[in-house]
């Protein structure tokens, strides 16, 4: 469903993504992990063109997302993106946050959008907070609303950029729980995360990145028990020490 | 009669008038600045003092002066204030360019309180922890203020102060209302005498632009040379 | 002093308030307030457009607007007033009165300063707001209209009220072209009474003070309220 072919990106002289190649099949959950500065966030942000690439090809459903004539907005409407810092719209209630895009992009009438938003908020366990403003919600609640907001556009693909890194430890579980049930429901997902427990339980495949390259691709079992690349071995050893 | 005749700007009577106007505008700016800055510093210190009545006095000064337009200040100082003076003092005032004197008083006070606010925000930009750190090292109160607080406060204050100087330069134009023969007065005078409004106002526009941009350039260079490095 | 001031107010309050109206054009304090309010309201759409252009990703929009804003701010308002007052009739052939001239100049003045308020507000908003709006598929324009601007305008409300205060003070310059705003009326009264200059101008100062200080306090309270209920995402 997603195909990356020799993707390269530079920030000035710094080579942030180096010949990145990989595929994500439909219904597959891929977890991208690695040390800080490895390019994981940059990579996931190229998938909905929040970052532009300098070389290579990215295709979603076979179509080159950088082709001439591609409507970036339509592309993004078909991909759900969840940020590390939630980025809920503070001037709108949780419900209105989820309704905004479907209504503005004419995917639904106001009534339909409202019903759908309520259903999604219920799905993430926050139907009772529908009329609350973001500043009245905890971090974990805000992130769950952010997930519901991304789901409101009914995207076939969901991207998660370190969704729990900004949360207090006790709230991480509730967000991971939502992501887990999404995966179980068959959603195609790419997650950048440090949560190794989640990766082990939910991922179909793990991509390990360092210095802009994907150094290892493995099943969770393979990765955690027998990492091949020395860098991956060191990474896991460091994690175990914590 | 051509639309724009620059020759009248280069020599002749109109040229002289405009030049005199420019000189007076510059003089008003410099002299008012010389009074406004110390006054502003004093008021800023008052407002940040730990002595409540002093703080209240500082705040009252700032609010009463700031919320009245400069034009009304000028009218007061020129038309009303002399009535309050004893006869001898009033005669002295009237004999010595009262328009310019009253303009300087009004401009100094008006600009001064704005500068006070800029200096005060500069002082407040330095976190309290800086003074704590200085005191923890054993520095006395005065030394802490002098070596740690003031240098940082001043560096933060200079850009808004330079911006306020530009405002002062522009505000001298309002002194025309009490008959001070600064640049706007002279430009209007040239217009009345010759109907050459374009040339006169172009001269004034270029003069204001040049000085404003020069001061803005100074602010930019200062910011580059002494950047504000937040604690 | 106080009794003479009260007597003055008693005698001239109507003239001070409305000028020669209804026997002549509207003047006095009401004119000052109406002109200021009208100028700010008219300048808002213009200031909004200029502010958006100031932060636009297109250089062709950003640079000319930047230059325009810098130019207008480098020149005294009185000079702009003179340009418009002496030139507009010559250029358009329509004889514009003092009040219309003042209104035009105030709108120019307010648009430029409002543009700066809007631009600063947009720049102060966390980048994530814009990114998450675009990630949902909203276009640049939709993201601006539905996410960025509502927050910017709400956060900028204290600054907008402060701009109203500046505008009220700026209307005093109309005196110089003979506009019957409140400072002009005060001077008329002074000429009539002649012996009570101090009282007359103290009343004028007091009037401005009450109006401007009152509005400044409102801005301050708005600022406080905005900080207590942070509408800003962290």
N-to-C SSE string of chain B, H for helix and E for strand: HHHHHHHHHH
Determine the oligomeric state from the structure: heterotrimer
Sheet/helix structural class of chain A = alpha/beta
Helix content percent band of chain B: over 70%
Number of helices of chain B: 10
Helix segment tally of chain A: 9
Please tell me what the overall shape of chain B is: flat
In what order do the strands lie side by side in the largest sheet of chain A? 6-7-8-3-9-10
Q: Mean pLDDT of chain A, rounded to whole units?
A: 91
Radius of gyration of chain A: 18 Å
Number of strands of chain A: 10
| C-alpha-based Rg of chain B, rounded | 21 Å
The proportion of strand residues of chain A reads: 15-25%
Helices and strands of chain A, in order, run as EEEHEEHEHHHEHEHEEHH
Residue ranges of chain B: pLDDT <50 for 5 or more in a row? none
Describe this structure in words.
The complex is a heterotrimer of chains A (242), B (231) and C (234). With 242 residues, chain A is α/β, with parallel strands linked by helices. In chain A, helix 3 (94-104) packs parallel to helix 5 and helix 4 crosses helix 5. Chain A has helices at residues 40-47, 72-77, 94-104, 110-123, 139-151, 169-184, 196-202, 220-225, 230-241, and strands at 2-11, 14-24, 29-33, 55-60, 63-64, 79-82, 157-161, 188-192, 205-210, 213-218. Chain A is 38% helix and 25% strand. Helices cover 81% and strands 0% of the residues of chain B. Chain B has 10 helices and no strands. In chain B, helix 2 runs antiparallel to helix 3 (52-66) and helix 6 (98-125) crosses helix 8. In chain C, 79% of the residues lie in helices and 0% in strands. Chain C is globular, with a radius of gyration of 21 Å. The N and C termini of chain C lie far apart (55 Å). Chains in contact: A-C, B-C.
Question: How does the SSE layout of this entry go?
Answer:
The complex is a heterotrimer of chains A (242), B (231) and C (234).
Chain A (H helix, E strand, L loop, with lengths): L1 E10 L2 E11 L4 E5 L6 H8 L7 E6 L2 E2 L7 H6 L1 E4 L11 H11 L5 H14 L15 H13 L5 E5 L7 H16 L3 E5 L3 H7 L2 E6 L2 E6 L1 H6 L4 H12 L1
Parallel strand pairs in A: 3-8, 3-9, 6-7, 7-8
Antiparallel strand pairs in A: 1-2, 1-4, 4-5, 9-10
Helix pairs in contact in A: 3-4, 3-5, 4-5, 5-6
Chain B lengths: L6 H4 L2 H35 L4 H15 L3 H15 L2 H9 L2 H28 L2 H9 L4 H31 L11 H12 L2 H29 L6
Helix pairs in contact in B: 2-3, 2-6, 2-9, 3-6, 4-6, 6-8, 7-8, 8-10, 9-10
Chain C lengths: L1 H17 L9 H27 L4 H16 L2 H16 L5 H27 L2 H9 L4 H16 L1 H14 L11 H12 L3 H32 L6
Helix pairs in contact in C: 1-2, 1-9, 1-10, 2-3, 2-5, 2-8, 2-9, 3-5, 4-5, 5-7, 5-8, 6-7, 8-10, 9-10
């Amino acid at each position: 469903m997603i195909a990356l072919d020799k993707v390269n990106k530079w920030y000035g002289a710094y080579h942030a993504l180096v010949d990145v190649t990989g595929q994500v099949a439909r219904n597959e959950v891929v977890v991208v992990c690695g040390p800080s500065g490895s390019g994981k966030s940059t990579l996931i942000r190229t998938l909905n063109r929040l970052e532009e690439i300098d070389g290579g090809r990215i295709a979603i459903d076979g179509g080159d997302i950088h082709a001439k004539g591609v409507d970036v907005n339509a592309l993004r409407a078909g991909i759900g993106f969840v940020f590390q810092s939630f980025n809920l719209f503070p001037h709108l209630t949780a419900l209105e946050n989820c309704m905004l895009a479907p209504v503005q992009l004419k995917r639904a009438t106001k009534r339909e959008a409202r019903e759908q938003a309520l259903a999604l908020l219920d799905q993430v366990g926050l139907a009772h907070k529908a009329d609350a403003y973001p500043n009245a919600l905890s971090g974990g609640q805000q992130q769950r609303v952010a997930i519901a907001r991304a789901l409101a556009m009914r995207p076939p693909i969901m991207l998660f950029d370190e969704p729990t890194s900004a949360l207090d430890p006790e709230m991480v579980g509730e967000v991971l729980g939502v992501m887990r049930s999404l995966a179980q429901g068959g959603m195609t997902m790419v997650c950048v995360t440090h949560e190794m427990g989640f990766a082990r339980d939910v991922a179909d495949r793990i991509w390990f990145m360092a210095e802009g390259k994907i150094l290892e691709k493995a099943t969770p079992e393979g990765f955690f028990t027998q990492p091949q690349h020395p860098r991956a071995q060191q990474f896991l050893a460091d994690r175990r020490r914590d | 009669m051509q639309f724009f005749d620059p020759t009248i700007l280069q020599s002749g009577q109109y040229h002289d008038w405009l030049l005199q106007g420019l000189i007076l505008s510059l003089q008003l700016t410099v002299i008012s600045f010389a009074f406004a800055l110390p006054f502003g510093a004093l008021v800023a210190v008052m407002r940040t003092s730990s002595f409540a009545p002093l703080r209240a006095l500082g705040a009252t000064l700032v609010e009463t002066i700031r919320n009245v337009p400069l034009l009304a200040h000028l009218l007061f100082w020129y038309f009303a204030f002399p009535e309050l003076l004893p006869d001898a003092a009033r005669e002295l005032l009237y004999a010595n360019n009262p328009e310019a004197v009253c303009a300087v008083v009004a401009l100094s006070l008006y600009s001064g309180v704005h500068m006070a606010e800029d200096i005060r925000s500069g002082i407040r930009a330095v976190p309290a922890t800086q003074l704590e750190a200085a005191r923890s090292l054993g520095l006395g109160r005065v030394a802490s203020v002098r070596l740690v607080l003031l240098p940082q406060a001043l560096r933060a204050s200079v850009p808004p102060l330079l911006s306020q100087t530009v405002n002062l330069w522009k505000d001298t134009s309002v002194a025309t209302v009490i008959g001070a023969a600064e640049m706007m007065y002279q430009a209007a005078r040239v217009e009345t005498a010759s109907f050459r409004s374009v040339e006169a106002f172009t001269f004034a526009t270029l003069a204001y632009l040049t000085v404003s941009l020069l001061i803005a350039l100074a602010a930019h260079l200062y910011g580059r040379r002494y950047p504000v490095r937040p604690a | 002093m106080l009794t003479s001031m009260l007597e003055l107010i008693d005698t001239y309050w109507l003239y001070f308030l409305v000028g020669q109206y209804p026997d002549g054009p509207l003047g006095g304090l009401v004119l000052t307030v109406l002109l200021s309010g009208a100028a700010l309201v008219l300048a808002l759409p213009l200031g909004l457009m200029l502010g958006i252009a100031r932060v636009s990703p297109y250089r062709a929009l950003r640079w000319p607007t930047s230059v325009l804003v810098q130019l207008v701010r480098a020149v005294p308002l009185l000079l702009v007033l003179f340009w418009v007052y002496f030139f507009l009739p010559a250029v358009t052939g329509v004889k514009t009165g003092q009040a219309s001239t003042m209104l035009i100049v105030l709108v120019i003045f307010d648009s430029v300063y409002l543009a700066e308020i809007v631009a600063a507000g947009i720049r102060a908003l966390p980048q994530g707001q814009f990114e998450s709006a675009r990630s949902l598929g909203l276009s640049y324009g939709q993201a601006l209209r539905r996410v960025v601007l509502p927050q910017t305008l709400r956060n900028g409300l204290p600054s907008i009220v402060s701009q109203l205060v500046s505008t009220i003070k700026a209307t005093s310059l109309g005196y110089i072209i003979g506009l019957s705003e409140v400072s002009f009326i005060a001077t008329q009264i002074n000429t009539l009474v002649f012996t009570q200059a101090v009282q007359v101008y103290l009343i004028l100062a007091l009037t401005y003070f009450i109006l401007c200080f009152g509005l400044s306090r409102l801005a301050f309270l708005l600022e406080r309220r905005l900080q207590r209920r942070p509408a800003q995402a962290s």
